[in-house]
Design goal:
The protein has about 270 residues and is α/β, with parallel strands linked by helices. The protein has a single domain, classed as Rossmann fold, CATH 3.40.50. The protein is about 40% helix and about 15% strand. Strands 3-2-4-1-5-6-7-8 form an 8-stranded parallel sheet, with helices on both faces.
């Protein structure tokens, strides 16, 4: 068996490996599945890899430098085989007024992430600018935090030519505790509707079993096992996403790869 501690520590290596072949990362799924938390953790991990050796987030903040400037100054410290890039985060959630990544944008910007969003007028959907340009730009690492269900996914349909390229990873996030993800038919219905309007051809599944910020290791492991039992014969289920305090226990008990999450949105309650 692979050493549990070393596997969790190697998460940085996994993100480094991703950056060698991928530049765009898209997060879709049912409303409330936890896409935003996972998307923010990806952005923070990429920022740490790309900028961490040049300047800390605190140094950037103290000098009142923009995220773009931090990225430019970090280029000299890039890892081997990873070209100089800037991390761009697009908050495209127009389907709900609460628990959106824009609520903690300052934390991402302090880490060197360039944050993009557009204010809504009442309930009218708006499209943030610059998505197409950055998806096409080899110098941009792009994270798209897409709104829930097919209503949110409809916003990215026009970018399908970029989303279906080999340099893009599309993640369908499933929380088996959510109402429409408790059975195969519900998951299949949600995924089918999202793929239809977004025109995405291929997705990777991320398991995100939780009942909130106080989810126990037992609840996370039970939910993940149930998800794999439900859909495992149809599609491969990727790593389990759990809050970082549970990561070692979950990996030891399940034997599955784990993505430890820091909960950023919890702090806005």
């Amino acid at each position: 068996m692979v050493n549990i501690v070393s596997r969790i520590i190697s998460m940085k290596a996994i993100f480094e490996e991703l950056l060698k072949t991928k530049k765009n990362f898209v997060f879709i799924g049912e409303a409330g599945s936890g896409k935003s938390e996972i998307a923010m953790n990806f952005a923070m991990a990429f920022a740490e890899i790309l900028y961490g050796q040049a300047q800390s987030a605190e140094q950037c903040a103290n000098k009142a430098q923009s995220a773009e400037r931090c990225a430019n100054q970090a280029q000299a410290a890039m890892l081997p085989n990873i070209s100089p890039r800037a991390v761009h985060f697009f908050d495209m959630d127009q389907t709900k007024p609460l628990f959106r990544s824009r609520d903690v944008r300052e934390q991402l910007e302090q880490a060197g992430v360039v944050f993009h969003f557009d204010e809504q007028f009442m309930d009218a959907p708006t499209m943030v600018g610059g998505v197409r340009e950055h998806l096409a730009d080899p110098g941009s690492i792009v994270i798209l935090d897409v709104g829930g269900n097919h209503q949110g996914a409809r916003m990215i349909g026009g970018f399908a030519p970029f989303l279906n390229r080999g340099e893009t990873a599309n993640y369908f996030v499933i929380n088996p505790y959510r109402p429409w993800s408790r059975e195969v038919l519900g998951i299949d219905g949600t995924l089918s509707e999202i793929l239809k309007v977004s025109h995405i051809q291929k997705v990777d599944i991320l398991s995100n079993p939780n009942v909130g910020a106080d989810t126990t290791a037992e609840e996370a492991a039970t939910g993940d096992a149930r998800l794999r039992e439900m859909i495992g014969e149809y599609v491969e289920v990727g790593p389990i996403c759990v809050r970082e305090q549970l990561a070692k226990e979950i990996e030891q008990n399940t034997g599955c790869a784990v993505i430890p999450l820091r909960l950023y949105l919890k702090g806005i309650l």
